[in-house]
Amino acid sequence: MEEVSEAPKTWATPKPAPIDVEAAQDVIFKPNPGPQTDFLSASEQEVLYGGAAGGGKSYAMLADPVRYFNNPMSKKLLVRRSTEELRELISVSKHLYPQAIPGIKFLEREKTWIAPSGATLWLSYLDRDDDVSRYQGQAFNWIGFDELTQWPTPFAWNYMRSRLRTSKGSGLDLYQRATSNPGGAGHSWVKKTFIDPAPYNTSFWATDPTTGETLAWPKGHSRGGEPLFRRKFIPATLFDNPHLADDGMYEANLLSLPEHQRRQLLEGDWSISEGAAFSEFNPNLHVIEPFDIPSNWTRFRAADYGYGSNSGVLWFTVVPHTEQIIIYREMYTHKVTAVDLADMILEAESGDKIRYGVLDSSLWHNRGDTGPSLAEQMILRGCRWRPADRSKGSRVAGKNEVHRRLQVDEYTEEPKMVIFDTCRHLIAQLPTLPLDKHNPEDVDTKSEDHLYDALRYGLMSRPRSNIFDYDPNAHRSKFQPADKIMGY
To answer: What number of CA atoms fall less than 13 Å from residue 158's CA on the CB side?
Structure first.
């Protein structure tokens, strides 16, 4: 009789019981009716939560990814700007997650939480732009940035959007979440991305912060012209967190702060920037409606060029007799070659009599190649420039000149510099530029300062009106002399 071999024994792996998501979130961050609940239930791809201090932002950021811990295919990433700040976040998570999710484990070396289902949450840092290389080849269905305004540019936020992906049939949606207070080096770009496009608590189609245009699928695509995804800003204040607000102690501390910090941290006011370099800027005083500029007023332009970042160009005119400067046009763009920018400038100023242009002097550097410099390439297109002053002390002198121009002239009772309200990028950036923490005589060069640099170059070019900057049409009377030469 032939023996029948037994099949090898296999041991069944018990499937972990799914966690109660709502109960787990209550342990971490018991949401109160209002913004806290709105944040945890938001369906938009990109959401910014916060505003004022004490709204429970970090707890909310730890609670939000819990909803995916039952899905074994879920991979999540939560980043802070520095490793020191990351330690604080890890410490809080170690206190909360084991209470909320039985069986969850933390891998100390990898800084990763692993749920019983196999879902993971990696807590990491992202300081410099090139730190994004740590995440190349990775895929996440959820990415969180805690304290978003600490990133001076949107590079990291935009790049990490490319890491949002998941396999078909995973049952996972793709989300990018952020928390932040107003202020910090990235205040301006965060404000333009989340605050300016729509009223608070309003879902809106994502826009390009530079142009304001809705991000859409390209022409020729099967979905060409359709918007890409939605964003939302959910504000929260101290009073949305009764654990801190009830006894009034924390509120008293916030009330004791200087006015601009109090408005940011207690009221969640995004209209001012912490440590603003030009706090005297007042839109009601320094912004005016456009008017037809006489053709014989002195006009000039100034530019700060960048391909990978942004290029900022400003056009100026000088009011005869008062020497008031008017910024009447701006151009703000990115990923444009020097030659293309020259063509765009010449097209924009067609019909203007531009006396001169001032350009960042570094564009005359050849940088090791044998061809014409970037400045020379632009000049060859007919867009003429002279180099801006970048000598030692020029940054401080330029900042002082901006302060001087923002002052009100005691004789004319008008500011020495005004801006047409069509220059919306300059108007948005100038009052939010932060001071350099290490050098209060300069702005933070890591902030969005391209139009500021163009402004500085222009003002330091010693602009003056000309004795011939006189528009006879503006003073025409009914009297017509019989002899135009002698005047009678």
So the answer is: 14
Burial (CB < 10 A; 0-12, 13-18, 19+), residue 415, is buried
pLDDT digits (tens, 9 = 90+) for 56-105: 678 888 989 998 999 999 999 999 988 888 888 899 899 889 988 889 99
Residue 245 CB-half CA count within 13 A: 14
pLDDT on residue 481: 42
Per residue in 238-270, is it b (16+ CB within 10 Å) or e — as a string? Answer: bebbeebbeeeebbeebeeeeebbebbbbebeb
Tokens of 105: 């484990």
Of the pLDDT bands very low, low, confident and very high (cuts 50, 70, 90), residue 466 is low
- Going by C-alpha positions, the residue among 370, 358, 348, 293 that lies closest to residue 326 is 293
Measure the CA–CA gap between 188 and 447, rounded to whole angstroms.
8
- The total of other beta-carbon atoms located within 10 Å of residue 276's CB is 19
Contact 427, 280 (CB under 8 A): no
Regarding pTM above 0.90, the answer is no
Sheet holding 175-180, edge to edge: 105-107, 112-114, 120-125, 75-80, 142-146, 175-180, 46-51, 230-236, 204-205
The secondary structure of the chain in percent helix, strand, coil, rounded to multiples of 5, reads 30, 20, 50
